[in-house]
Amino acid sequence: MSAAGAGLSTHVLDTARGRPAPGVRIELHEVTGGERRPVTEATTNADGRTDAPLIGRGHLRPGTFELTFHVGAYYADFPTVSTPPFLDVVTLRFTVADAGAHYHVPLVMTPWSYSTYRGS
């Protein structure tokens, strides 16, 4: 993909309810030499996505990043979730090797498990 399509995006899917997960707070950090530097913060919309890419086209660069999803508050009203919840904060650390490619890093979750993948 060309640099015009490059960037970083995410979305959150709630497989326990079978729908996107609105209202999940997300933080993005860049990790360099063990130090975490905040890049941006967003909250998912009704489609489980952020309103804008976390890193826009042409601004992505190679490096290590962390996406932190605050899922405990989202599942607070789920009927079988304990207090405190089993999953509260999910952090995904990943590496961008090709700044000219688009990186889409979704979170697929339930109150007790999660997975991710590199999407398009």
UniProtKB/TrEMBL annotation:
Keywords: Hydrolase, Purine metabolism
Assigned EC number: 3.5.2.17
Binding-site list for substrate: 11, 49, 117
InterPro entries listed in its UniProt record: Hydroxyisourate_hydrolase (IPR014306), Thyroxine_BS (IPR023418), Transthyretin/HIU_hydrolase (IPR000895), Transthyretin/HIU_hydrolase_d (IPR023416), Transthyretin/HIU_hydrolase_sf (IPR036817), Transthyretin_CS (IPR023419)
EC top class named in words: hydrolase
Transthyretin/hydroxyisourate hydrolase domain span: 8-119
Pfam families documented for this protein: Transthyretin
Protein's GO biological process: purine nucleobase metabolic process
UniProt catalytic activity: 5-hydroxyisourate + H2O = 5-hydroxy-2-oxo-4-ureido-2,5-dihydro-1H-imidazole-5-carboxylate + H(+)
Top-rank lineage group of the source organism: Bacteria
GO MF term list: hydroxyisourate hydrolase activity
Family stated for the protein in its record: Belongs to the transthyretin family. 5-hydroxyisourate hydrolase subfamily.
Subunit and partners: Homotetramer.
Purpose of the protein: Catalyzes the hydrolysis of 5-hydroxyisourate (HIU) to 2-oxo-4-hydroxy-4-carboxy-5-ureidoimidazoline (OHCU).
Protein name: 5-hydroxyisourate hydrolase
Upper taxonomic lineage: Bacteria, Thermotogati, Deinococcota, Deinococci, Deinococcales
